[in-house]
Design brief:
By secondary structure, the chain is an alpha/beta fold. It is 36% helix and 26% strand. The chain has one domain: FAD/NAD(P)-binding domain. The strands form four sheets. Strands 5-4-13-14-15-12-16 form a seven-stranded mixed sheet. Strands 7-2-1-11-18-17 form a six-stranded mixed sheet. Its cofactor is FAD.
Length: 397
């Protein structure tokens, strides 16, 4: 069966690998003209890593991943440690160590594994036609490609999603919602003068957060959250000026982190949006996955993992069900929409708790961090992993 995938991100390429390894003829189109992933790095929790293991990439992903043995929270103003605990219970309960990884490194690995000859960049989808047992993708340059199945992994502003929901035919258009904060992220050289090299360290105060996580090649993935209105002006030339304004009075470690950032090399600014849980993922021989289906705020680190779960579920459904493509896609939809939607809501709730939208709630969260042994935090992390289709019904030990 020929499969056209729109989008060469984490979800699209992982789905392409899964389907190609089950014997399908896969081709991917993406409007980007070169591989420039959005965001510097991502959290691969155990469920996401397991999907990559299933794809045969376990050793390669382990080499890309940072050694993250502990988690700690610090007071943003003073730098005083609020709590520190081991992440070993996550591995013990789930059967897989989590890894923070460079997004560019992971995406490059997935593209190479699929085969660069299967991926066509600079091709923007502008239309979809379904006729009988075929579906055709129409691109801005006038070219087309016809297949037995089309998968839209085309991101938060998905045209494929609009086609599925009949947004231009009297149906409904999914609208994104602003989460209330802007995220700055990138990669810097790891340094013990900022934080331990084997630890996810987060500083909190004023409804803002700064954090570092270790990734391969002696680097930290860093990120800063600033609650603010959407649409504020920012130019690349502004560099770290917004970070200095928001965090310049914070602890010495945070100031060292900011001083180590090289904006021309690695600094991204992203307004954080999400969408309400969506239960319409398919129409005929067309389906969506990843951000197109469940654009999720990064507050629980499950966005990429959820896209990887989509890829696993889609390949399993198409491989194990034989009634027809439409039937298999509907079963994929049933497998995924409830869980993906629940993760959207959990991330939204977490963001509301941590970003000071209700100061009393955020103050209570800060207080809960003081001296905790991490049991509740670990329970929350594991709770996000439990129920993943990659667990094959076994659950957690």
């Amino acid at each position: 069966m020929k499969v056209v995938i729109i989008g060469a991100g984490i979800g699209g390429t992982s789905a392409g690998i899964a389907l190609a390894r089950h014997g399908h003829d896969v081709v991917i189109y993406d409007r980007m003209r070169q591989n420039k992933p959005v965001g510097a790095a991502l959290s691969l929790w155990s469920n996401g890593v397991k999907v990559l293991n299933w794809l045969g990439l376990g050793e390669e992903v382990a080499r890309l991943g940072g050694r993250m043995d502990h988690m700690a929270y610090h007071d943003g103003h003073t730098g005083d440690q609020l709590c520190r605990f081991s992440l070993e219970p996550v591995t013990a309960h789930t059967g897989q160590r989590p890894y923070p990884v460079s997004r560019a490194d992971l995406q490059a690995l997935l593209m190479r594994t699929l085969g660069l000859d299967r991926i066509h960049l600079g091709r923007e989808l502008v239309g979809i036609r379904e006729e009988g047992d075929k579906v055709t993708a129409v691109f801005a340059d006038g070219s087309t490609d016809t297949a037995d199945l089309l998968i839209g992994a085309d991101g938060a502003r998905s045209l494929t999603r609009d086609w599925i929901t009949r947004a231009d035919e009297g149906g409904f258009r999914v609208e994104r919602q602003y989460s209330g904060y802007t995220n700055f992220n990138g990669l810097v050289a790891a340094s013990p003068a900022i934080a331990p090299l084997d630890q996810w360290t987060t500083w909190v105060a004023e409804g803002k957060r700064a954090a570092v996580m270790p990734v391969a090649d002696d680097r930290f993935y860093f990120w800063f959250d600033i609650p603010q209105p959407a649409g504020l002006p920012y130019e690349r030339e502004d560099g770290v000026a917004p970070l200095e304004a928001a965090f310049g009075h914070w602890s010495p470690e945070v100031r060292r982190l900011i001083s180590g950032i090289r904006p021309s090399e690695s600094l991204n600014r992203v307004e954080i949006w999400d969408i309400d849980p969506l239960h319409t993922w398919t129409r005929g021989r067309v389906a969506i996955l990843g951000d197109a289906a469940h654009n999720t705020a990064p507050d629980i680190g499950q966005g990429a993992c959820s896209a990887l779960e989509d890829s696993f579920a889609l390949a399993i459904s198409l491989t194990t069900h034989t009634v027809g493509v439409e039937d298999s896609l509907r079963r994929y939809e049933r497998m995924r929409t409830d869980r993906a939607g629940e993760l959207v809501l959990r991330a939204r709730k977490r963001g509301e708790e941590t970003h000071g939208y209700d100061p009393s709630i955020t103050a209570a969260w800060y207080e809960s961090l003081r001296g905790t042994d991490g049991t509740a935090i670990i329970r929350g992390i594991i709770g996000n992993i439990d129920g993943s289709p990659i667990n094959l019904g076994v659950g957690l030990l």
